[in-house]
């Protein structure tokens, strides 16, 4: 990290050449109210930029824009410094961004040759731009994306290299233990039953609960069990952010009595057991009323241990590929595809629910698959020429090679199949699950992970076989996403999801939870904004994948491969505006 680095989103006074050093982040994103999975730092370098200056070389700056999900509007996220007189800049100032695997973050890098001190970009010469997604950068080999700069017809605008580096603080967890002394007695017949509630502060000054300890019964001097919490959840990676701790006396009816509170920060806690980490518990009401009030007891930090976890991005950076397979329900209950009431209706003006679910999930996952070749299967249809029923047929008509190029290739094959096969039944999931499981069983070394997306209109016919397939697949490097479309009851799918009760077959329980089910109807945007529906759907179905992926790697003891050596730009003298 460089000394002059500031996270994007905070303005600094002054700024080089009249430029704000970092632009403020756009409006709050409705989808990103959860804690970001992690933060990544983007470094930008260019090679062979256009030369727009007559007597010297260009003086480039890079401006990063992000795109709002609903209205597709581009908003400035931040700017690098200006580097004088070079066509091969390696910008020092970085962009720090929240990274969510489950969201598609569209990025645009614009390059300008700066001709004056004006912060207004229209006053400078445009040198071209590059579009990509954050997933594309992270998913590239070594998290290093090299792409051509475009935007000026008939001109070669050079190339841009963007490298993503995960920030270390985001993968730390802390193991802490607290005790308390002489807490206020709140119960009439016995002593208090104390517990602690931890809150992290937000940018706007509000607080979000992030941990509750267990209740220790009938004592004013409790010693709570040690607990583990990620630094992200505790303070969002900001070591100086306020952490508020409240002390309560537990009551059976839920009306817990407030004993008092204190504030601290990650930086203070990290000093470990010391005189600095003994806190007076203060009850503001009591303090206001009683002149002689000292405190309502003390809370002491007994231990503080930092643990660094390996992250999903460590594996991606080390070259693990995510293989995406689609399986589409072609059973007759979907309705005749030529009728507007059918879930498979091919409306020339908008995607049907199958198309939307496929695109929403596929467009995010494709960034993590280097060859962009996806097997696409169908089930529950009668196939030409003899009308045999198949529960795992290739949408492109080629059983030896069911791969389609890119998500658009999958969509094309889906539309072609609708015209050639007859919708039939029953709805059997086991064959397509076993199809992917065969591939997953052949690579268990952590170099590949498989995600199967099943899109279905509902009632499953082979429940026992499907459960068995899922229990067997839970030992393999794979996850299953099921999206239910249409109005059917999806109770059976909830059972497969295993969030409430772990799925079992013949007395054997699944080794880990690998199924995520969502009904598409829960995501239909009332205003008819399909972009928003698709973003919400993708967010929910993909949010569990990184944890499922990590649970497989942990159980198998697979460590990430070392990342390829970082890119080191050729040396040349830099003159930077200060």
User: What is the rounded Rg?
Assistant: 28 Å
CATH third-level topology of the largest domain: Rossmann fold
First CA to last CA: what distance? 18 Å
Total helical segments: 12
Average the pLDDT over all residues and give the rounded result: 87
Structural class: alpha+beta
- The amount of beta strand, in percent, is 25-35%
CATH architecture of the largest domain: 3-Layer(aba) Sandwich
CATH class descriptor of the largest domain: Alpha Beta
Topology:
Layout: E1 38-47, E2 60-67, E3 74-79, E4 83-84, E5 95-99, E6 106-113, E7 125-133, H1 134-139, E8 144-148, E9 159-166, E10 172-181, E11 194-201, E12 207-212, E13 227-230, H2 231-235, E14 242-249, E15 257-265, H3 266-269, E16 278-280, H4 284-289, E17 298-308, H5 312-317, E18 321-329, H6 353-365, E19 373-379, E20 381-383, E21 388-390, E22 393-394, E23 403-405, H7 406-420, E24 422-423, H8 430-442, E25 448-456, H9 463-473, E26 478-484, H10 491-497, E27 504-505, E28 508-509, E29 515-519, H11 530-542, H12 545-556, E30 575-576
Parallel strand pairs: 18-19, 18-25, 25-26, 26-29
Antiparallel strand pairs: 1-5, 1-9, 2-3, 2-6, 4-30, 6-7, 8-9, 10-13, 10-17, 11-12, 11-14, 14-15, 16-17, 19-22, 19-23, 20-21, 20-24, 27-28
Helix pairs in contact: 6-11, 8-9
């Amino acid at each position: 990290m460089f000394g002059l680095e500031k996270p994007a989103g905070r303005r600094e006074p002054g700024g080089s050449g009249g430029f704000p050093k970092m632009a403020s982040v756009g409006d709050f994103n409705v989808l990103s109210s959860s804690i970001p999975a992690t933060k990544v730092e983007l470094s930008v370098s260019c090679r062979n930029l256009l030369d727009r200056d007559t007597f010297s070389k260009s003086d480039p700056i890079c401006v990063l824009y992000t795109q709002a999900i609903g209205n597709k509007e581009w908003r400035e996220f931040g700017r690098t410094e200006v580097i004088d007189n070079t066509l091969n800049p390696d910008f020092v100032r970085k962009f720090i961004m929240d990274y969510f695997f489950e969201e598609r973050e569209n990025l645009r890098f614009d390059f300008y040759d700066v001709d004056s001190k004006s912060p207004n970009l229209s006053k400078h010469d445009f040198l071209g731009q590059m579009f990509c997604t954050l997933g594309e950068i992270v998913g590239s080999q070594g998290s290093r994306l090299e792409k051509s700069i475009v935007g000026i017809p008939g001109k070669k605008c050079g190339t841009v290299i963007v490298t993503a580096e995960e920030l270390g603080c985001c993968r730390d967890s802390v193991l802490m233990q607290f005790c308390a002394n002489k807490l206020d007695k709140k119960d009439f017949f016995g002593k208090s039953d104390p517990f602690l509630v931890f809150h992290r502060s937000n940018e706007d000054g509000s607080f979000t609960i992030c941990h509750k300890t267990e209740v220790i019964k009938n004592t004013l001097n409790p010693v709570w069990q040690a607990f583990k919490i990620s630094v992200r959840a505790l303070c969002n990676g900001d070591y100086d952010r306020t952490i508020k701790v409240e002390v309560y006396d537990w009551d059976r009816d839920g009306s817990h009595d407030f004993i008092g509170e204190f504030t601290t920060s990650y930086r203070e806690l990290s000093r470990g057991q010391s005189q600095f980490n003994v806190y007076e518990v203060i009850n503001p009401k009591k303090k206001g009323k009683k002149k002689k009030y000292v405190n309502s007891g003390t809370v002491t930090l007994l231990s503080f241990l930092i643990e660094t976890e390996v992250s999903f991005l460590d594996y991606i950076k080390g070259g693990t590929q995510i293989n995406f397979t689609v399986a589409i329900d072609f059973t007759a209950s979907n309705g005749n595809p030529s009728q507007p009431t059918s879930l498979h209706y091919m409306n020339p003006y908008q995607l049907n629910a199958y198309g939307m679910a496929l695109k929403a999930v596929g467009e995010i996952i494709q960034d993590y698959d280097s060859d962009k070749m996806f097997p696409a299967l169908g089930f529950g249809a009668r196939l030409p020429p003899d009308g045999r029923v198949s529960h795992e047929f290739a949408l492109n008509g080629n059983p030896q090679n069911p791969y389609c190029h890119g998500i658009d290739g999958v969509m094309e094959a889906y539309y072609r199949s609708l015209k050639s096969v007859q919708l039939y039944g029953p709805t059997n999931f086991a064959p397509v699950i076993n199809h992917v499981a065969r591939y997953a069983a052949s690579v268990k070394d952590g170099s590949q992970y498989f995600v199967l997306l099943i899109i279905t209109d509902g009632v499953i016919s082979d429940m026992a076989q499907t459960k068995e397939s899922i229990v067997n697949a839970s030992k393999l490097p794979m996850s299953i996403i099921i999206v239910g479309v249409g109005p059917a009851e999806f109770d059976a799918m909830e059972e497969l999801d295993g969030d409430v009760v772990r799925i079992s077959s013949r007395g054997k329980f699944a080794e880990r939870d690998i199924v995520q089910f969502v009904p598409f109807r829960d995501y239909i945007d009332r205003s008819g904004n399909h972009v928003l529906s698709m973003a919400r759907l993708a967010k929910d179905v993909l949010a569990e994948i990184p944890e499922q992926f990590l649970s497989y790697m942990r159980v198998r003891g697979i460590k990430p491969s070392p990342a390829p050596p970082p890119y080191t730009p050729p040396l040349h003298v830099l003159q930077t505006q200060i």
